[in-house]
Design a protein that fits this description.
The complex is a heterodimer of chains A (about 425) and B (about 120).
Chain A lengths: L11 H29 L2 H22 L5 H24 L3 H15 L4 H15 L6 H11 L5 H8 L3 H17 L9 H23 L10 H17 L4 H14 L25 H16 L6 H14 L8 H14 L3 H15 L1 H10 L11 H12 L3 H14 L3 H20 L1
Helix pairs in contact in A: 1-2, 1-3, 1-5, 2-3, 3-4, 6-8, 6-9, 7-8, 9-10, 9-11, 10-11, 11-12, 11-13, 12-13, 13-14, 14-15, 15-16, 16-17, 17-18, 18-19
Chain B lengths: L1 E9 H6 L4 H16 L3 E6 L7 E6 L2 E6 L7 E10 L3 H9 L7 E6 L7
The chains are: A mainly alpha (about 425), B alpha+beta (about 120).
Chain lengths: ~425, ~120
């Protein structure tokens, strides 16, 4: 099923019920799917069973009214179906105690209401499953938004500006891959847990980033995606309370999201960090971000790359004006990130910070070193940063070429306009000089 | 989107019936559930209006009025700041609150258009 049935206009009571069901689904679906996944062992079947329960609700609730405990109703309905299914499988295959155990598990599940701890374990297990490294990044993102975020396929497609069929296929394929690889509901431990958690954090941050600086389309930011990612992060932070990097990621997203309002000008044009009106930053989110960062710090241990990037974001958040930014500290933090999680993009960011702390020539030297980096070949921010540093050095003619090149590389309309404007400024420098 | 949930209490009822420890515990459990669902951004309870002040503007004049604000039927006694996807979701959460009296109001907070 790809979405909820919508009744025609005029049928207001039914419409109200349908909207209530939609809201209940948003709230309950992740817990529902998680519990079912634990019973039947795989996401695909769990989601189908949950959807069946939703269809039952859509059929029955308009007449009977929304039950007092809608979550329990959905769970009860789905669990009965789960038991039937497990029994049918047993009859078909007639083998393995494994299935016997499944029925046992399913029975247990049906008899007792889950405790809070069980619900939390279920959710965490589901997150690990949806973000399994066996899946492509795109698949992980779609599946996570679908089963954990409670988004419909249409909503995911709209958010990523791709056809609904693409997302639907991606989800179907992801579920099949998980089934074929016999990925079970599990809690990774030891070194495996570190890698698996990294995959989860990556997925959440990918979702956030697509909202924060959209790679495609005309809008530079899509705040709804940021909100979805933040919410997933906040949920995860309450599930995995002792993982410093989870709090690090949440801190990073909270602080970055605090700038969303200030990042876009009146006609949708991007406004870069140092040009932003800091009065428009969301101080509630900054406060929350700093609190999360503090939580990560207090857990001790080695500071991870997300917490380090959050610390960098916090430097900006703490500076009352752009001029007061503690650039040497930011450079030091980027040095640490570069050691821990080296990547050309981090190097590029470090070059920007070095340019601010120690002058554009120093920054440019680092950028030049990245020129041959294959993974940045089509990355528009490389020429954009280079152009910026060149212009600061008074080399406007060279800067103009860089900005034009950057404009040709970006796939985001708003960003392209900004880069053309910067190129035009360089051209004006040339005429003035 | 963000909504502000306002707890409105009848000032007389509020004075007459302080919450029982069980009620407080139940409320904390519910609040915890909201936090775990990533819904709560902030919350607060207000002191009774007897400790509040009002300022009335009339042109250049400012008149200070001391609480309690007995002429107001429903007074804000507390607030929640929630992050939800829709008004329906907020409504659905609020329905689950362990309250047996009082009026609670959900108001959407104005944000930039695309938010």
């Amino acid at each position: 099923m790809t979405g909820l049935h919508r009744p025609g206009p005029g049928d207001t009571a039914a419409t109200e019920t349908h909207r209530a069901i939609e809201a209940v689904w948003r709230i309950e679906s992740a817990v529902l799917i998680a519990r079912l996944a634990r019973i039947v062992g795989d996401i695909g079947t769990a989601e189908e069973l949950a959807q069946d329960a939703l269809v039952a609700a859509l059929e029955q609730w308009p007449a009977s009214g929304v039950p007092e405990q809608p979550g329990a109703w959905l769970m009860g309905t789905a669990k009965h179906r789960a038991i039937d299914l497990v029994r049918r499988r047993q009859t078909l295959e007639r083998k393995h105690e494994e299935i016997g155990r499944e029925v046992e598990r399913a029975q247990e599940g049906i008899d007792d209401a889950a405790t809070d701890e069980e619900v939390e374990d279920d959710l965490l297990g589901l997150i690990f499953m949806a973000c399994h490294p066996i899946l492509s990044k795109d698949a992980r993102v779609a599946l996570t938004l679908r089963v954990l975020g409670g988004l419909t396929t249409e909503e995911i497609a709209r958010a990523f500006l791709v056809p609904v069929s693409t997302i639907a296929q991606r989800i179907v394929r992801a579920k099949r891959t998980l089934t074929e690889a016999h990925v079970r509901f599990e809690f990774p431990v030891g070194p495996d847990r570190v890698a698996r958690l990294a995959s989860v954090l990556e997925v959440i941050y990918l979702i956030f980033n697509e909202g924060y600086s959209a790679t495609a389309g005309e809008d530079w930011v899509r705040p709804a995606l940021c909100e979805d990612a933040l919410r997933l992060g906040r949920i995860l932070a309450e599930l995995a309370t002792t993982e410093p990097e989870v709090h690090g990621l949440v801190a990073l997203m909270e602080i970055q999201a605090s700038r969303l309002r200030a990042r876009v000008g009146p006609s949708g044009e991007p406004i870069l960090l140092l040009d932003q009106d800091r009065a428009r930053w969301d101080h509630l989110l900054i406060r929350r971000g700093l609190a999360s960062l503090d939580r990560a710090d207090r857990l001790g241990g080695e500071i991870g790359p997300y917490a380090l990037q959050a610390a960098i974001a916090a430097c900006h958040a703490r500076a009352a004006t752009a001029a007061e930014t503690d650039w040497p500290r930011i450079v030091a933090l980027y040095d640490a990130v570069a050691v821990m999680a080296p990547s050309p993009v981090i190097e590029l960011n470090r070059a920007v910070a070095v340019g601010m702390a120690f002058g554009p020539a120093a920054g440019l030297a680092l950028v030049e070193a990245l020129a041959a980096e294959p993974s940045l070949k089509t990355y528009h921010l490389l020429p954009a940063v280079r152009g910026d540093l060149l212009r600061k050095l008074g080399r406007s003619a060279e800067a103009l070429i860089e900005f034009k090149r950057a404009a040709s590389l970006t796939e985001n309309g708003a960003e392209r306009k900004l880069l053309h404007r910067r190129a035009a400024e360089c051209a004006a420098d040339g005429m003035a000089g | 989107m963000r909504v502000l949930v306002l707890a409105k209490e009848d000032h007389q009822a509020q004075a007459a019936k302080p919450p029982t420890p069980e009620a407080i515990l139940e409320f904390q459990k519910f609040n915890e559930e909201l936090i775990k669902a990533g819904v709560v951004l902030g919350d607060g309870r207000l002191y009774p209006s007897s400790q509040g002040k009002r300022l009335r503007f009339d042109g250049k004049k400012r008149a200070v009025i001391d609480g309690p604000f007995t002429e107001t039927k429903e007074l804000v006694a507390g607030y929640w700041l929630w992050q939800v996807r829709s008004m329906d979701e907020a409504l659905e959460w609020l329905k689950r609150a362990p309250f047996d009296a009082g009026t609670y109001e959900i108001r959407q907070i104005f944000e930039m258009e695309s938010m």
